[in-house]
Amino acid sequence: MKKTHYFLIGAVIISTSIAVYSFFATPKIAVVDFKRLVNDYQGMKDATLEYEKKMTGWNTTSDSLTDAIKNELSDYYADSAFLSKQERVNRETKIISMRNKFMEFSKGLEENAMAEDQKMTIEVVNQVLSFVEKYGNDKGYDVILGKNEGDEVLYRKASMDITNELLQALNRNYEGF
Known about the structure:
The protein is mainly α. Helices cover about 75% and strands about 5% of the residues. The protein has a single domain, classed as Protein Binding, DinI Protein, Chain A (2-Layer Sandwich), CATH 3.30.910. It has five helices and two strands.
C-alpha cells in the first residue's frame, strides 16, 4: 500500500512539474520575411521562367496576327485604286474580321495570362506555407511570424529572423523533388 501511495505522490509531483514548466516555458518564436522567402525560392524562379516561356509564345502569336493585319492593310492600300467597289468591300470586310479576331485573341491572352499568373503564385505560396509548417514542427517552433511590406512586426532581434536558414532548407527540399 505504501508503494502505491509513494508511486501516486511521485506521479503527481512529476505531472505538476511538467505542467508548471510547460506553462512558464518561453515559446520558441521566429520571424520570416515572407515576400523574400517566396521570391527567392527556386520553385518560384522556375515557375516564373515557365510562365515567361508561355508569355513569349503567346506574344509571338500576337505579333504574327498583328503583322498579318498590317500586311493585309498595306496590300489593300496599294491595290485600292485598281479594285472594283465589291472587291474593296470584300477586302475591307476581311481586314475588319482579322482585326476583330485579333482583339478577341488579345482579350483572351490577357485573361489567360492573369489566370496563369494567379494559379502559379497560389501553387508556389501553398508549397512554401506547407514547408514552413513542416519546418516549424521539425525545429520546435511554437510560432513563425511573417514579416511583410506592412511590417506587422514592430520589433524583433535580428537573431529571430530565420529567413535565410528557412530559404536554404526550402530550396534544398525543392531540389530533392
